[in-house]
Design a protein that fits this description.
single chain; 94 residues; alpha+beta; globular
């Protein structure tokens, strides 16, 4: 999935992810992040390009109290849904 970004949006998202406790930079261009406090909680794998971010993977997360951990409940395959979730989490400026 591809989300087109302005330079300002790209810079904001990278700064957000660099400061976000539950995000990890895998390379200079790729991040994984878990948004446990979002509604619904979700996880994303993002790869930045010059004018966009590619969503290599996204999923809704669920918490299992018995196992005391998070698990992937379902894949998110709709670009608009990922964009909306990132915007609501304040990782993406509208």
């Amino acid at each position: 999935m591809k989300i087109r970004l302005t330079q300002e949006q790209s810079a904001h998202m990278k700064a957000f992810l660099d400061a976000f406790e539950d995000a990890e930079a895998l390379t200079a261009r790729e991040y994984v992040a878990d948004f446990y406090e979002a509604d619904p909680p979700f996880s994303v794998d993002l790869v930045f390009s010059r004018d966009a971010v590619f969503v290599d993977g996204a999923a809704v997360l669920r918490y299992d109290e018995e196992q005391d951990g998070w698990y992937i409940a379902e894949r998110i395959e709709d670009t608009d849904t990922v964009r909306d979730l990132l915007t609501k989490a304040e990782a993406l400026k509208a």
